[in-house]
Write a structure and sequence with these properties.
This protein is mainly α and 218 residues long. The protein has one domain. It contains 10 helices and no strands. α2 packs across α4 and α6 packs parallel to α8. It starts with a helix and ends with a helix. The model has no long low-confidence stretch (mean pLDDT 75).
């Protein structure tokens, strides 16, 4: 099995892998899940790691009593908050060093200034919504740091987004993973979770476009 097939197998059969990890590693499963969530949210080089589906699968394992749900939820919220915090810090630390040119199309300082203005106006909503969008949630805190979004605002929405994200998906796993139809169609459920995760951002994009169109019409 090549690396692509292996990665696809991990994503599509995530419930089996989490259950197997729990069986083999016991209490260390908490550490493994903590590190995966931290890396998925905190390192811009690992946006491919599972997020929503991992939380759902972890909730499913909690449903059979293999993991303690309250403990897991608290640990994963901490992991998500720390991950976004590290990502923000990396963006804030290196953003000025990367965006130094006034002529570069990609690393133009004006992009940095516009990013800062955008996050000051819409930052909180962006950080919370990004939690529910695969890949985007990995880059949102990084860009917030680059744009110098005020840390007090970022920290507040970071915590709100992390709590909502972890609680919603772990609880969904707890409630529905035991259903026979979910067990037999877990791959479809995973893709469904991803589709639902993207919807809030799509709705927000259309809403923003409509507002701009209405302003132009007036």
């Amino acid at each position: 099995m090549n690396w692509f097939d292996l990665a696809l197998d991990v994503i599509l059969r995530l419930d089996h892998h989490v259950a197997q990890i729990t069986t083999e590693y016991g209490v260390w499963t908490y550490v493994i899940l903590f590190l995966v969530v931290f890396a998925e949210t905190g390192l811009v080089v690992t946006p491919f790691l599972p997020g929503d589906s991992l939380l759902f699968a972890a909730g499913a394992v909690c449903a059979i009593g293999a993991l303690n749900a309250p403990l897991l939820i608290v640990l994963l919220i901490i992991a998500a908050v720390l991950g976004d915090g590290v990502n923000y810090a990396i963006g804030a630390r290196f953003g000025d060093k990367v965006f130094t040119s006034d002529t570069s199309r990609l690393f133009n300082r004006r992009h940095l200034e516009r990013t800062h203005q955008f996050y000051e106006k819409y930052g909180g909503k962006t950080i919370v919504l990004a939690r529910f969008v695969p890949i985007v949630r990995t880059f949102a805190p990084f860009v917030a740091g680059i744009g110098k979004m005020s840390y007090s605002r970022f920290a507040l929405y970071n915590v709100v987004g992390a709590v909502a994200w972890v609680v919603i998906f772990v609880v969904l796993g707890l409630l529905f993973a035991s259903q026979e139809i979910v067990k037999k169609n877990f791959s479809i459920v995973v893709f469904g979770i991803i589709a639902v995760s993207i919807m809030p951002m799509i709705i927000e994009v259309f809403r923003s476009r409509k507002q701009r169109h209405d302003k132009k019409s007036n």
